[in-house]
């Protein structure tokens, strides 16, 4: 081979390296990985805190954590719904403690003094920042009520920011591994029509997770594992997707997948293998084509 041929071969290899790396990560997370969540249950007093746990993904995650022997704190804004979920979790017969934390994550004046007092003294080893979501607005960004934009940003970005700020230090000081999860969305990389507030909130969490992970790993040398959980379609009772399909798992199945990936070593991870493939395809096809696919897949927004 000539020098030019060697150079071309080396260039092709360099271009293919990211794809090989993605393939290896996929195999590790979805084919080889075995759940290590029990390593985060440091004692019989260990708790997992799951926000937005009165339904959907949060409820599914809380259910799986109870099955794995964790005590749980379930957060939501409706006390009656949380009480019903608490009964369901206790009925699993695992003998774990289930506590309720009531609070509207989207309101302007969250009572953080009360929240800190209710969580004080608990050995929280797993924090799942799940509370979030926004309905698809029927009008462009500039025509949306600013109050709903602010509320969405508080719910999806500011509440998990503040809660993580409150709990990160105590979690770092524990004598074993702990985990902080941010339930994200593929919208952070491919924003749906008219969903600017939601998309930028999830991008905020994506960067927050990366920053915290860098500090904990490289500067503080702690055992805090940080995950930004890339999520696509999941069946929920009050969301856009209300039926199961090969790319739309139910909330309980997705909750199991989320718990299984804790400790996998990847900061950004898609727990559902189909979502991982979809994300790879989105990256591969380019922005213009990805936007066209998204426009075809999404309900057509109303402009009147």
Automatic annotation (TrEMBL):
Subcellular location: Endoplasmic reticulum
SUPFAM superfamilies xref list: NAD(P)-binding Rossmann-fold domains
Signal peptide: none
UniProt GO MF annotations: oxidoreductase activity
Statement: the UniProt record of this protein carries the keyword NADP: yes
GO cellular component: endoplasmic reticulum
Alphabetic keyword roster: NADP, Oxidoreductase
Pfam families: adh_short
Domain of life: Eukaryota
PANTHER family: RH59310P
Family: Belongs to the short-chain dehydrogenases/reductases (SDR) family.
Identification of the protein by name: NADP-binding protein
């Amino acid at each position: 081979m000539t020098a030019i041929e060697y150079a071309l071969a080396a260039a092709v290899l360099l271009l293919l390296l990211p794809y090989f790396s993605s393939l290896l990560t996929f195999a590790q997370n979805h084919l080889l990985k075995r759940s290590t969540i029990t390593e985060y249950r440091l004692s019989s007093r260990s708790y997992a805190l799951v926000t937005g746990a009165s339904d959907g993904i949060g409820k599914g995650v809380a259910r799986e954590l109870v099955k794995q022997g964790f005590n749980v704190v379930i957060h939501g804004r409706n006390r009656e719904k949380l009480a019903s979920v608490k009964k369901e979790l206790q009925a699993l017969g695992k003998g774990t403690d289930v506590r309720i934390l009531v609070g509207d994550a989207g309101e302007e004046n969250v009572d953080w003094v009360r929240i800190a007092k209710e969580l004080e003294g608990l050995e929280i080893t797993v924090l799942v920042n799940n509370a979030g979501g926004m309905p698809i607005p029927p009008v462009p960004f500039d025509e949306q009520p600013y109050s709903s934009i602010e509320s969405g940003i508080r719910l999806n970005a500011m509440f998990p920011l503040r809660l993580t700020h409150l709990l990160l230090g105590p979690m770092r000081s524990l004598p074993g591994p702990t985990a902080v999860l941010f339930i994200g969305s593929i919208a952070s990389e491919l924003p749906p029509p008219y969903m600017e507030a939601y998309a930028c909130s999830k991008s905020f969490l994506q960067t927050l997770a990366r920053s915290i992970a860098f500090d904990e790993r490289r500067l503080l040398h702690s055992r805090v594992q940080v995950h930004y959980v890339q999520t696509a379609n999941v069946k929920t009772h009050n969301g856009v997707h209300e039926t199961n399909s090969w790319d739309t798992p139910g909330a309980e199945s997705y909750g199991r997948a989320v718990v299984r990936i804790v400790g996998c070593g990847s900061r950004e991870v898609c727990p559902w293998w189909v979502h991982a493939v979809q994300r790879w395809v989105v990256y591969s096809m380019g922005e213009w084509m990805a936007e066209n696919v998204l426009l075809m897949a999404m309900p057509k927004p109303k402009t009147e």
